[in-house]
Every structure is written in structure tokens, then in C-alpha cells.
Amino acid sequence: MSEFQRRRADLWRKVRGQGVEAFLVVNVEGSDQPNLRYLTGFTGTFGVLILAAEEALFLTDPRYTEQAQSQVDLPVGEVRGRWIPQVVERLRALGLRRVGIGSARTTLHLFEELKKAGEGLEFVPLGAPVEELRRVKTEDEIRKIREAVALTEAGLSWILKRLRPGMSEREVALELEFWYRREGADDVAFDLIIASGPRSARPHHRAGPERLRAGELVLLDVGVRVDGYCADLTRVVSLGRPDAKAVRAYELVLAANRAGIAAVRAGASGREVDAAARRVLEEAGLGELFGHGLGHGIGLEVHEGPRLSTASEDVLAPGMVVTVEPGVYFPGEFGVRIEDLVVVEENGARVLSAFPKEELVVLPGR
């Protein structure tokens, strides 16, 4: 049994008890690309998987027929023009009447269109069963994430040697993205965050025309996608000698990062892990400056379950891969965030990222 066959079998076992005769996964221009790729290996932007007890069928349009035939280990059918009625007819031809569909990603518009075209069929929202399966990674998936981490770290090392006052944040981001693509990344996993000076106090700042200045911190939150799998890593450096406040903030965030990693293990809740890191900052009087969750799952998407936060209801299991990224942000001054990727194991965490973080790196300020 191939890995994709195993995943589809796991999915069918997960949904069959909910009284459906089939499960439908629809990816329209990227709407559900991660789930479809996870179940079939298909990387195009339009595809439909019909999964039933005894058989499965993959449908796409003429743009992707040949690609699907080379990527997907299922019979491939072709739809042309108005595809929803054709999908409905395929369901009817298979004798299916009650069809489950993931409601976490399916738009209300698509759901209503399926219902309208599928008179006599019942489409049943089933939450996020594929996303739930994706939370626990196989060793092969972890290997791909590790490869993405290694390339991410190599690029970070490359760009830090080139950082200098006067460069714009956007220039840094573009140079780094070009390097990543040239060195083999599928893509960047997200818009690279290059945030300097007071802009580093904005957790999701977008690199802009602002110039790097001597004496300021630069926060780099970067990651690439390799063979579909993502990496996410954050480090902070100083252009020239930092002041004592920045150094102290860095030391505290590093301590919180280490406490968070130490708390990761199978059976721990996302809330407990978040609390372990957050406690370090709260005891130092900086708790109010840490306004986001500690981390998130990562895989085919850069943000997926489980979550590490004060509101998380997730429980960690072996094979999950999560970020640990505490931060403190002084509005108008600077921000510090340190982010690593770890694999949840029975008795702790296996850290995938290895980029140095032991102290605040000081780069030439001129």
C-alpha cells in the first residue's frame, strides 16, 4: 500500500462512522490544495477526489489531465466546462447518495452549488477530518520539513553576511527569496518578514521601503517550502552595538523559548506548553508584551494544527511538528522573537532547527 493509499484508508475509517457513503475533496484554484495533495500527491490548482468504501476517483480538467495521470495513483477522469454538474453525475453513476465534505475549507457558495446541482443527493458537512490526520507527520514528512529547515537556515546565514545599514527591508527580503529559489526551494512558505528598528515591534510586519539603520535590531522571520513542506524560523540580530534593554529582552525571550521547548512532549496540552514559556516573561514583568500564542503546527501549510496558546484545546501527540516562538514587543522601539521548529516525541521534543541563538548576534553597524 502506498503512502497515499494509506492516508485515504485512514480518512475513510475516520468518516465512515458518520453515515456517509463517500467523501468529497474539492480544490478549486487552490482552495483545498494542501488536503488534496496530502491524499493524492496532486500539485495542480483544480482537482476533485471522490473517496468511497470500495473505490476512489480523481477528476480534473484538460489543463491538468496529463499531470494528474503522472502524479495520482487513481483512475483520472476529465471534466470540461461546468464541472459541478459533472461531478454530481459521477456521484450518481457510482450509486452514491450521502456524501461527506470537509466544512472547514469548503465555501458556503460551493456547498450551495453542489446542493443545487445534486438534487436527490445529500452533502454532509464533516468538519476537518483531513486536517486532523495531517497533524501527525510520518518520518518521511519530518524529513521533508527538516530539508526545508536546512535550506531556510542556509539562506539566513547567507543574508546575514550581507546585511548593512542603508539596505531596505524589501531589498533584503527580495534578495533572500531569490537565493532560496535559486538554491532549490519550491517557494517561500510565506511573505518573508524583515522588520527593522521600531517595525520589529509589529509581529507580522511586511517588509517595506524603510531602511536598516545602525544601532537597531533586525527581526528576520523566514521559511521556505521544499517538496510541499514548510519551514518557519525567526532570529533577531543587531546592526551595531545594542543597548542594554534590547540585550535583556533577548535574554528573556531566549529563556522563554527554551522553557517552551522543554515543555513539549506527548500528552502535554497546547495551553500548558504556552504557559511554560509565558511564565518566564510574566515573572520578568513583560507578560503584557507577549500578545500572541507560543506556536502552531506546520507541514504542507505554514500554519496548521495543533496550536500552542492560552486558548488551545489541543493535546500534543508523537509526530506532531510545532513552532515555539515567544516574543516581546515594545511599541515604537523594537521587538524580539525567537522561533524554532520541534517534533513532539513521547518524552520531549526533537529540535529540527539549529541556527545559533545563544546570544544576540551583533553585525557591523557601518
How many domains in all? 2
Largest sheet: 6 strands, mixed
Q: How widely separated are the two ends?
A: 59 Å
Cα Rg: 23 Å
Specify the structural class: alpha+beta
Mean pLDDT: 96
Number of strands: 20
CATH topology of the largest domain: Creatine Amidinohydrolase
- Helix and strand sequence: HEHEEHEHEHEHHHEEEEEEHHEEEEEEEE
Strand residues, percent: 15-25%
User: What is the CATH architecture descriptor of the largest domain?
Assistant: Alpha-Beta Complex
Q: Total helix count?
A: 10
CATH 4th-level superfamily of the largest domain: Creatinase/methionine aminopeptidase superfamily
Q: Please, could you describe this protein's structure?
A:
It is a single chain. The chain has 366 residues and is an alpha+beta fold. It folds into two domains: 132 residues, 3-Layer(aba) Sandwich (Creatine Amidinohydrolase, Chain A, domain 1); 225 residues, Creatine Amidinohydrolase, CATH 3.90.230.10. Helix 3 links the parallel strand 3 and strand 4. The longest helix is centred in the middle third of the chain and has 22 residues. It is elongated and about 70 Å long. The mean pLDDT is 96.
What's the arrangement of secondary structure elements?
Layout: H1 3-15, E1 22-28, H2 33-40, E2 46-52, E3 56-60, H3 65-71, E4 76-78, H4 83-93, E5 98-101, H5 108-117, E6 122-125, H6 129-134, H7 139-160, H8 169-182, E7 187-188, E8 193-196, E9 217-222, E10 224-226, E11 229-230, E12 233-239, H9 244-263, H10 270-283, E13 295-297, E14 304-308, E15 321-324, E16 327-330, E17 334-337, E18 340-345, E19 348-351, E20 361-363
Parallel strand pairs: 1-5, 3-4, 5-6, 12-20
Antiparallel strand pairs: 1-2, 2-3, 7-10, 8-9, 9-12, 10-11, 13-14, 15-18, 16-17, 18-19
Helix pairs in contact: 7-8, 9-10
